[in-house]
UniProtKB/TrEMBL annotation:
Protein name from the UniProt record: Tc1-like transposase DDE domain-containing protein
Gene3D superfamilies membership: Ribonuclease H-like superfamily/Ribonuclease H
Entries under InterPro entries matching the protein: RNaseH_sf, Tc1-like_DDE_dom
Domain named Tc1-like transposase DDE: residues: 8-67
Organism of derivation: Brasilonema octagenarum UFV-OR1
Domain of life the protein comes from: Bacteria
Amino acid sequence: MPIALIIYLNKLSEQYPEQLNIIQLDNGSFHTTKALQVPPNIILLFQPPHSPELNPIERLWQYIKNHDLLGDLRQFRTAAIAYKNGVK
């Protein structure tokens, strides 16, 4: 069960109880499990299958893989910040 997601959804629901909150997610099994109880003021909007272009983190992972940055945490952090700031 996705404990962190459950905590996040509950906190979001409590923080904005009068608003309808829409969260966009990929189709990871931990996002789609039937055990996930979604608060009534939250709608989960799922991306189409096999659409990594809609998920910004997928582009970051591709950048990390292409630049062989998985071995050095400092180099990884510097590259992630550069990517976020638009440096290619």
